[in-house]
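Our consortium's second objective concerns turning raw sequence data into structural hypotheses that experimental partners can test. To show how far this objective has progressed, the report includes one record in full. It was chosen at random from the queue rather than selected for favorable results. The single chain below, 797 residues long, was entered without modification.
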Amino acid sequence: MKEGRKRLRAGYCYMLAGVVGVASTGSSRADSAPQSAATLDWRMREFLTPQQMTTLEPQCRGTYVEPEYGFVNAPSTASTSDNEALRAHSDSLVSPSESAMRLQGNVKAQQGAWWLEADQVELDRQTNVVDLQGLKAARAPGLLLHGDTARYNLDSKDFTLSDASYLIHQRHARGDAERISSADAQLVRIEDGSYTTCDPMHNDWSIAASEIILDREQGEGTAKHMTLRVKDVPVMYFPYLRFPIDDRRKSGFLYPTIGTSNTGRGMSFGIPYYFNLAPDYDATYSPLYMHGRGLLSELEGRWLTEDTYSELRLGYIAHDSEFSKENPDESGRRWALDFTNRYDVSENWRSTIDYNVVSDKDYLNDLNRTLEIQQETHIKRSWDVTYLGGGYSFKSHVQGYQTVDDDIVDNDRPYMLLPQLSFGWGRDFDPVAFGLESEFTYFWRDDENLDPAKDQQVVGARWRTQPSLKLPLSTTWGYLTPKLRLDHTDYQLEQRATGLDESISRTVPFYSLDAGMYFDRTLTLFGDEYNQSLEPRLFYVYSPEQDQDDIPDFDTSVATFSYSQLYKEDRFVGGDRVGDNNRLTLGVTSRFNDRATGAERLRASVGQIFYYEDQQVGLGTEGLSDESESPWAGELVWRPNDRFDFKVEGLWDWQERQTEKGATTLAFHDPEYRKLLNLSHRYTHNDLEQSDVSVLFPVTDSVSVLGRWFFDLVNHRTIGTMAGVEYNDCCWRFQVIARSFLKDADDTENSEMDHGVFLRFQLRGLGNIGSRFEDVMAKEMRNFNERETYRTERYQW
């Protein structure tokens, strides 16, 4: 044969452009070329392995499986060195000239990250350009390209395909294009093409654009002249759109928020924009037009370093038309701000700031979308500096309030803490243990409209010191702890009413004894082994009565009696009252612990307090009692597994044979959070009885219904309802709920229902179109947020 025209027999290994081949090929595929990149790696669910099924949702028909490929003993496909050899195998080789080679029949080639399969390959040695006919597959890790014809540059590793399709396995993303070019497998440029995460042959939604660039190295995609299509019907146009193709943050428009306007008519619509300003700080601007109100602007900024984290959120509307109608004397300009900061000054020191302010009491209900401010009568703002280490603790706490309801009289408004300084110390000196708690607080509030004759203008300082000494004695079967605590408080007051002291001191000793025993046994129930314990407990406390009527009430209240109060030393919360005690608590607890895991599966506790003297110290009439014994207090907690949670707690007056207070809650979810059930009932004798039911249940693999009913059994009225439906496909999800709730549930005559509709349209791999859906559902249904987190992490939404 002539030089340059020599043929090599099928299956022989050869050199191309001075590159050494290998000994054998990888696994082969069928000779017939697939229609697209997506169908090439698509596997129906019945052909998946159990491991592959773990990331497949029940409604999905299948998933993409990236096969193993490459020559045996070839360099790793993760390598991208410019000097890598091209290794190839084919049925035959023809060399038409000194500068050209043609490979024919089942051609397989590998260079660096690229693996190629084609019917025919022609190589130009002078330009190092390869032309491929009948391209079956061009693979790189996580990427598959398919096309009619293709060109590949051996030097730059650039690929160009015509009449092409592509598949990105990790994002479940695929598409077609007139032309696809790829630079070193990391940058994919799609011309006149599409993008979707739906299954092959099921284009429920897709992006069609004149140009789509998928930058795998940066983790983002961009589209020019983009049209969002639903079932090939255009529904939305963007001249330019940037979207993520992995979990990294990128600047660009986020998906629109759509909802109903709470003015009773019309819609709300907004398009947030995210600014990825730097690795350690970012911002989001969220303009929202609300029909009947106007343009609401919200801005969120975040800053994160190794030692500090800050968030600032602002909300502003220049003129709220609906608010101006309801409040003719107001300008209609409304705003809100919340700021949080955590700064770890050192290993032991930390600073925490939480500042909140709103323009009016109805802002949060009418306008708030992103601000994290609790809907309260008195909005708190605080600054804490704390130290912890070496057996010592220190805290500086500054706290103020904004009372948003102007109808609250000044005397009922809380005091500001300017500041509150706390110190703690504890140390064991075997066999005794010492402790010290000390707190200094200066209380202040505006006294302009307060009555000095009623001692309403009083402000001043309180210094409370509580040293303690205890002797903890314990064995494996029980414990005994006698304790002595001294509660001493000094007041230096200002602006007191005539005749009342400005300097007051109070010292009250506390003597307590805490004792318990522990018995256990092993037993088998329903085939499982448990460790059952029986834990009787005795708790006695004595503190003498001391007249405290002249001491003002800055921050003190009487704790609500419940099971948790059985073993507390005092019935008061705060430092302005110290209770008189001569009482004994008897109680018992039994636990069932799984012997295999140690998890507590059942806990039942009951106890009662016996009073040997009347309780004479109170806040007005609160805290006073002449009863000789308390109601029985108990709780039952049953968690047979990690999916079921049942709790009952309450107070039982055995003399009156009636329940004084009770609460029952049940929460259940299946392993995949496809079913949620929450039941609760609250009862207070002669005051309150409410039931609350919420449920999410799958009707089919794709359709779920959800609802909630919150009912007042005393006044026979509905407090709130929620009903909705959810549709899940493998590449999109739609959720809509209608919600109604009483604006003021305490007003039994004039409270009105507030109604709202919330929706979310989620496109897999792109984002959400909706408004406040997650925030609403977190409040409406227990475990709903856990469901969303589980779904995102497991199924990579």
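The partners drew two points from this record. Residues 1-33, 77-83 have pLDDT under 50 and may be disordered. The chain is about 5% helix and 55% strand. Both points have been shared with the crystallography group to help prioritize constructs.
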